Each structure stands twice: as structure tokens, then as C-alpha cells.
Amino acid sequence: DISPHTRMMSPTMLFSACLLLLGVSLCSGAFQAGVAKIDGTLPIGVPLAGYNHGTRRYKDWPLPQPRNYTNWMAPSTGVMDPTWVKALVLDDGSDLVCMVTVDAIGSDENLNTLAYGFAVEMGFTIPVNNVLFSMSHSHSGPGAVSSDFLWAFAPATDLLVPELQRALAQSMATAMVQALKNVKPAQFAVGSFNLTGVTQNRRARISPIVKIDSIDPHFGVIRVDDAQGNPIATVWNFAMHGVCYGPENMHTSGDIMGKACELAEDAIGGTVLFINADAGDIDPTSLSCSSPPQFTGAMTIAKFLQSQRATMTTTTTVDLTPTSNVVDFGPTNINATLERFNNCTHGGFLDMCSICAVLRCDLNPHLGSAWIEHTPRFFGLRITIGNDHTIIVSMPGEPLLELGWWVRNDTAALGFTTTFLAGYSNAHMGYFAPPIEYDVGGYESPLTFWG
């Protein structure tokens, strides 16, 4: 099984964490918070992003079959759940931050930039460096809203339709502005718990370092109440792919995470926001996906969230220290090999796998920003309550489990009590596999684009 590994954090994350730990604000006022929830559902007929096979993909791909909103993917045929767009604004009297969540596959830089621009036009005053854009990673959310051609051609999202991108960006902007307008005196608490039994590691059959139960159990919770103790918002942070609905589903849905939020809102009150974590190789179990559309796992998560939230003691003395850093990854280093793409180390047609294992038949295209974004903005937020320091740090894609442990160990060594890993946030640059998993191959390895 996986246990924490002591590894060096990337310079970007290390810089952000050190800055947050050392840069304690010297002044703060009364804590305030505001939340908003907007129905951002796009028209029936949009492609559903996440799967590039089965019913979702046209059988003659890559030949296009243009429709109103689709080219390579079949149009959706209905709406099972709204595409919820939610925003939470926190204000410690010195700094304001905003967290935006969307029931969608991945965070797109151009979509986020468009949403922020719309919000500013509507009166939003929080600096963009203090905003986190996080997507749930539902595989039944809207496609055709990303500018990245690689995801479009896969086809996992389909080609960008500007009117759809603008519509979703407008919903995001509206949520941000309303949340800021809704700010009022509030109480705050943050904590971390462990939840097991609802997720599994999907790489267990091929990886030498994980088992089926090698998962990230960290379950982060943020509790926000008004001055009278009534719930304003709840944030939960957990690693889980949104794949209970498979590629045959053609109805828009927030999948298991969206249902868990809905059930928790019914039980707790207020607005419940979900931020995914290091879920690159973490799926819900078959039991968790049973009994749709309620989902056994969603009911378990909602009850767990409700019970753990109730144990948390709120305070009005909170210090927020946000930071942000843009990193240019440069063009991709895909390093395509038969071993990594097909787990093919010997044999094959004309014994090609054996030959290439010796000759290293690498194809290493260096794709630029027209294909996939490569200048993500890393977001970090230090939350200080008394002597406890919590950090929320963004990850621009799908980190695998071991990478999540590296970050958690490094932040703990820096003095942080609790770490929230915000995967699928501010950008979506594919998977991020640690060296051993990269070399093992499998689905996640060739989609790790920078080595």
C-alpha cells in the first residue's frame, strides 16, 4: 500500500507555501462571508465532456459530423441535474478571496479569464490572483467550452463553441458578483477528517505501488455560518473521479459529487461547494455508484459531511493570506512509446513491441499553447486560526495519488496543520504522474504531457 513519501515539492508550490507561512497579516477586521449559487446549465444538444468513446463519440471520428454545438461528439439529449455554478467569498477585514466551483470536467484558463472579465464589468473588485476556479471533474458536464484543441480533438470536450463558453462564463461571473454582494458577518471553521470505503484506486491492476484501497482519505471541510450560527456555506475537499455515469449517459449531470452536494444542502442548509483533490487515479467504488440517481456513495458522503461539520467549532478570528504565481511549463514533452501507451513491452505485430523496447521508438511532439494551456496560475491560500495553519493549493489538472502525498508531506514539513489539494483548478493540463507511474504506463501515463 502507499504510505507518505518524503519528496521535494515543486519550486512553484514550495515558494507559495513558504510565502504563505511566513507572510502573516498584521491587521484584520471582523470576518465576513458571502455565497451564491447559479444554474449554469447549457442548452440540450451540447456535448458532454469527459469520455472519448462509446455513445459520446461519433463512430466515424475523426470525420466531423457538425451539429448546432457538436462536431466529433454526439449531442446531449437531456438534463438530469443542473450545472451548478457556485461562488464563496471570504473576507478577513484585510484580504478578500473568492472560490468558484462548477460541475464540469476541467478548469479552462480562457473560460476563467472570460468569466473574470465579465465579473469586473459587473462590479467585482477582488483581484484575479485571489480567485480560485475549480471544476468538479464530472464526466457528464458541458463540453465545447474549452479552447484547448488537444482535448477537443481527442475528442473529450469537442470543438469550442464561443456562445457556449460565453454563456458559462456569464454564469460564473454572476455567481462571483452575487457572492461578493452577499457578504455579511460570519463565523468560520476548517478541519480535516478521513473517509474510506467510497473510493478505489483504478491503477491497482497495473501499478506495482498501489492496491485497490490505495486512496487519499483526506476529507477537508470548511464551515461558514452567519453571526447567529445559521449555515451560509460548506466546502468539502476530497479525491474522486466523477464517473458513476458512463459514456452511454447523454444527460447533463454533476455525477456523484453533485448529488452529494445536493443531499448535503438538504440536510445542512446553505450552499455546499465541492473542490476535488488528487483524484488522477481515484474512482468511486461500484457500491458508491449503485442506486442512481441518489447514489449510495453520495448518501454516505453527505451524511459524513453533515456529522463532521457539526463537530467543528467556529470563530470570527481568521487570517487569510492569498498568493498566486504563474508558471510557464513550455511546450509538451509527451515521449510517446508503445510501452507507455499500450503497456506493450514485448511481442505485438511483427514483434514491434519487443523491437521498440530495445530501440526506444519514441515520438516526442512538443505541442504549444494552441494545443493545450501551459501557463497555469497556481493559487495558494493560507488560513490561520490561532496557531493552526491550513493551506489550500491549486493543481492544474489531475495529480495521481503519490504526487498528492508528496505535496502533503512537504506542506506538513513547512508547518501547515491541514492541506487542501485543489485539483482541476485554474487550468487543466492533463494528468501529473510521479516517475514510477509514468514509466509503468497505463491510461494516465501518456496523458502526462510534461514528463
3D structure, described in words:
By secondary structure, the protein is an alpha/beta fold. 25% of the residues lie in helices and 24% in strands. The protein is built from ten helices and 20 strands. The protein has helices spanning 11-22, 109-121, 149-153, 162-181, 255-268, 296-310, 338-342, 352-359, 401-413, 435-440; strands spanning 32-39, 48-49, 78-79, 84-91, 96-102, 131-135, 141-142, 184-194, 199-201, 218-226, 231-238, 251-252, 271-276, 282-284, 319-326, 377-385, 388-394, 398-399, 418-422, 431-432. The strands form six sheets. An eight-stranded mixed beta sheet has the order 6-5-4-1-8-10-11-13. A four-stranded mixed beta sheet has the order 15-16-17-19, covered by helices on one side. Helix 2 (109-121) packs across helix 4 and helix 5 packs across helix 6. The two termini are 24 Å apart. The relative contact order is 0.17.
Summarize this entry quickly.
The protein has helices at 11-22, 109-121, 149-153, 162-181, 255-268, 296-310, 338-342, 352-359, 401-413, 435-440; strands at residues 32-39, 48-49, 78-79, 84-91, 96-102, 131-135, 141-142, 184-194, 199-201, 218-226, 231-238, 251-252, 271-276, 282-284, 319-326, 377-385, 388-394, 398-399, 418-422, 431-432.
Q: Runs with pLDDT <50, length 5+?
A: 1-9, 22-28
Record the strand order, biggest sheet: 6-5-4-1-8-10-11-13
Strand content: 15-25%
> Given the C-alpha coordinates, what overall shape results?
globular
Span from first to last CA? 24 Å
